[in-house]
Design brief:
eight-stranded antiparallel beta sheet; globular; alpha+beta
């Protein structure tokens, strides 16, 4: 009889343990990390006489080039991708994901200011340089994007270069798109570049 009672008590205790375990809520699964913003593909660049080729997406800020915006975006949270054609035309997209929306907004404003003052700074560094810079308007996409052109020349050697630039933001993500080739603004695909900018911001998230 004692053995039977002990068995009953043991079974009851086991049942209580199972019930208690069943009442403990399961630990919530960790939220999956958000997908990183997407980059432009080669086919989304402005039309060119020869096809665009897209390079790999690289971590950090570019090691060279991007003379107008160098030193502004932090290396942490930044990636970039270069594009080229068989002619003297190249492009680059840089994406930075800031820790907060407020930091992203401040970064976009600083990048815009750097583009607005870029030509003056280049002329200070090289007195032989001439050129014109224009604000080419806003692109209405997400938190907005802004487009600029910088036309430079060296009269002594007869060379001219045109660059198109844009800064756009979607939440915590800020992107800069750069496009450049030999020539002047009249030969630049301004509307195509605006479409590329719209696509770049739309693809962030």
């Amino acid at each position: 009889m004692r053995t039977f009672r002990t068995a009953l008590l043991t079974a009851a205790a086991a049942g209580l343990a199972v019930t208690a375990l069943a009442q403990v809520p399961a630990a919530a699964a960790p939220a999956p990390a958000p997908a990183p913003p997407k980059f432009l593909s080669a086919g989304q660049l402005p039309a060119s006489l020869t096809p665009w080729t897209a390079g790999p997406v690289r971590q950090g800020v570019p090691s060279e080039g991007s003379v107008c915006t160098a030193g502004i975006a932090p290396a942490a949270g930044t990636r970039h991708r270069d594009f080229r054609t068989e002619l003297d035309t190249g492009a680059r997209q840089t994406i930075t994901v800031a820790a907060t929306t407020a930091q992203a907004k401040a970064l976009a404003a600083e990048l815009r200011s750097a583009l607005e003052t870029c030509l003056d700074r280049l002329k200070e560094q090289d007195p032989g340089l001439e050129g014109e810079a224009f604000y080419q308007g806003r692109v209405d996409i997400e938190e907005g994007a802004h487009v600029y052109s910088i036309d430079t020349s060296y009269p002594e050697v007869g060379s001219t270069d045109i660059g198109l630039y844009s800064v756009g933001r979607d939440g915590r993500a800020v992107t800069v798109v750069e496009w450049g080739q030999l020539g002047d603004l009249d030969g630049a695909p301004l509307e195509g570049f605006k479409n590329t900018t719209r696509t770049a911001v739309a693809k962030l998230y």
